[in-house]
Amino acid sequence: MIRTTAVPRPIRVGAAAASVAGLALLAGCAGQTTSGSTDAGTSSQNPPASADAGSGSSTGSYKDGTYTADGSYQTPETVEKITVTLTLKDSAVTDVEVTGDPQARETRQYQADFIGGIKNEVVGKKLDDLSVDKVGGSSLTSGGFNAAVKEIRTEASS
Amino acid sequence: MTSVAPLVHSWTFEAIGTVWRIEAASPLDDGVREQITGAIARFDSEWSRFRADSLVRRLGGEGGAVPAPADAVAMLDAYDALDTATAGAVNPLVGEALARRGYDADYSLVDRGPVSAPRNWRELITWSPDALSLSEPALLDVGALGKGRLADLVLDLVPDGPAVVDAGGDIAVRGVTQRVALEHPYDASRAIGVWSVTDAALCASAINRRAWGDGLHHVLDARTGQPVRRYAATWAAASDAMTADAVATALFFDGGPRLAAEWGAEWVRMGTDGSVEWSPRCEAELFS
Is the ipTM beyond the 0.90 threshold? Predict the structure, then answer.
């Protein structure tokens, strides 16, 4: 769980909100806990009930309460699902909570905790020049698989 | 090299579609070899998606309940964690999705399009030490960790003392240190680094092998039936090979690094853009 109550918020929260129409309110208000901004988009006005993303009406002001919306969005490899809970008081956001698994690696906290480092390019060295006991790689493939690939190549080139 | 000195006995053989090599300080006599051959045959007859007479093929055709294979609970519990960590990208019912992309029992390699694996697999499969059951026919595929599990089983059957089991690139090490080259996914004559492994297992996964037409390969996202494209190769080290194998699979997806941290595994992965990432306490030597 990532809990945010003020800036700086995780990058993922902003990215998520921007990708989910129903979470426009979050994009507009996160981090503006005292601004009283009320011009954000859609939200449910039935606190504290849970509402689907994108439902509800917008009248420019919001009742006090806790609002919940579920969202999902596609990353290159994943479908991310999150639940965003907003607490509103006097039309201002006083608390933002993002739950679920915003696991994408671009989250700063995630990088700090789970990823040690990154190099943009690793060229490598010739195996012949190394003194090693073993080679760790994708397993050698079976005879059946290799034969099938060869057959397809033959058909494709004939 | 001193680490190799005690491993004077070795045995190379082919099984489950790959070349195995066992090196050990103790003799690998006929009795030991029979036990190992038997264990692999049993595992294959239970879990191979490629054998028409296997248990998973029977469950795939008919569903129903069977006495649980010895490894069912360990592997399916791990899949439970994998699914949670990767938000459903890793799923033990991905067998049909793989088969439809052409990676089927006949190696047809004919792509019939993407299908997702059943998201609710935990409701379809029931597993306990006693029974394994599928409420409807569905094709199990334990490819995310099965070979690692089998490497662990084989190492357990090697008599006490230093030993190394190399299951075609997935390596389980006991009582010695092995320097393992990390094969470059785009150039098998090169290594991107070297990792010294002592009393642990190092497993790898890559999209360069078991690959066929039109960008298809054997690492599918179970949610979409599409091959992964962000990472080209992954390596993971853990106390046992099943864990290392599972983490190596998870690293193709978001959530993999977090799962590695939970399970105490270290890792390296290479993106399809050539960049390389590693875990916070990874001790692999990488060549830039």
Answer: no
pLDDT in tens, B177-188: 999 999 888 888
Give me the residue label for tokens 């909100």: A17
Collect all residues of chain B within an 8 Å Cβ-Cβ radius of residue A117.
277-278
List the structure tokens of B37.
């051959």
Phi, then psi, of B274 in degrees rounded to 5: 90, -5
Task: Inform me whether the C-beta atom of residue B258 falls under 8 Å from chain A C-beta atoms.
Answer: yes
Q: Is A127 helix (H, G, I), strand (E, B) or coil?
A: helix
How many of the other CB atoms lie within 10 Å of CB of A145? 20
Q: Please name the helix (run of DSSP H) or strand (run of DSSP E) that holds residue B83, with its range, or none.
A: helix B72-85
Is B198 part of any domain?
yes
The structural domain count of chain B equals 1
What does the pLDDT read at residue A80?
58
The amino acid occupying position A83 is: T
B80 is a domain residue: no
A76 CB neighbours in chain B (<8 A) are 229-230
Q: Which residues of A are less than 8 Å from B261 in CB distance? A: 113-114
Strands A79-89 and A65-74: antiparallel
Phi-psi region of A30 (alpha: psi -120 to 50; beta: other; left: phi over 0): beta
Domain range enclosing B255: 2-28+163-286
**How confident is the prediction for chain A on average, in pLDDT?**
53
Instruction: Give A41-65 pLDDT, tens digit per residue.
Output: 333 333 333 333 333 344 455 677 7
Residue B178 domain-assigned (yes or no): yes
From the list B61, B144, B139, the residue with the least C-alpha distance to B104 is: B139
- The CATH number given to whatever domain includes residue B262 is 3.10.520.10
Chosen from B190, B203, B259, B267 to mutate, greatest number of chain A CBs within 10 A = B190
Classify residue B64: in a domain, yes or no: no
